[in-house]
């Protein structure tokens, strides 16, 4: 049995390959910049279906956000070995490799992730060859849920949002005084998720010119700060995975085309394509 995982900062999608149709399920996301090994292991025990927890797993292929060094990879790998000690192979790789494999298979090209955070690369069909760092939600992550959500929340707190939308946002998100919002942002866990949650508001009101402008501005920043700095970027199609890229795909495609880049695949999640990738790899 093979277990495959694609882990974002918010959620992690899993697939169990046991000879029949894949069994899919979800857990929390386990970015090792915000989680430690005991916490991940405890969450998995709570969240994974009992039959999967007890299954004789022989290999685990985990792709996740925040897995940028051997030290961070071991935070996740240690938890996986605790939960499935019988697994003979436990591989942990960055989620960007999952995106490239899901979008491009064994073909070369450009791949990106646009979800809670942003990441992108050039891929030669086997490995990632170039990455322009997104720098995380504090310094970058242009085009991400945190980027869109940050602008929405900032405009609300500064009184720059149209009044009707501001009233709707306050009611929907039960926002209190500025000090309360800032306390939630700076003094509680997972501030990136908190910010990204406001991108949903832009999606729910995508017919509003204000929200359209916010989203377009974020995608323009993605191209200006990241995509156009890849060599010969216009030779590649723009391919991405992630909820933000998928649900705002029309706006994203328009920005890509304005920058002279063709549009390829835009997948909400890569897990099904990853299953196909590993099924082919496992064949004798």
Overall, the morphology is globular
Give the number of helices.
14
**Strand order in space, largest sheet:** 3-2-1-4-5
Strand content: 15-25%
Output the CATH class name of the domain at 2-99 and 271-282. Alpha Beta
Low-confidence stretches: none
Helix content: 40-55%
What is the CATH-assigned architecture of the domain at 2-99 and 271-282? 2-Layer Sandwich
Would you count the extended β strands for me?
10
CATH topology of the domain at 2-99 and 271-282: Nucleotidyltransferase, domain 5
Q: Secondary-structure element order, as H and E?
A: EEEHHEHEHEEEHHHHHHHEHHEH
Characterize the structure shown:
This is N-acetylglucosamine kinase. InterPro entries: ATPase_NBD (IPR043129), Euk-type_GlcNAc_Kinase (IPR052519). Keywords: Kinase, Transferase. It is a single chain. The protein is an alpha/beta fold. The chain has a domain of 110 residues: ATPase, nucleotide binding domain (Nucleotidyltransferase, domain 5), CATH 3.30.420.40. The protein has 14 helices and ten strands. The strands form two sheets. The chain has a five-stranded mixed beta sheet with strand order 3-2-1-4-5, sandwiched between helices. It has a five-stranded mixed beta sheet with strand order 8-7-6-9-10, with helices on both faces. Helix 1 runs parallel beside helix 3 and helix 6 crosses helix 11. The two termini are 15 Å apart. The model has no long low-confidence stretch (mean pLDDT 91).
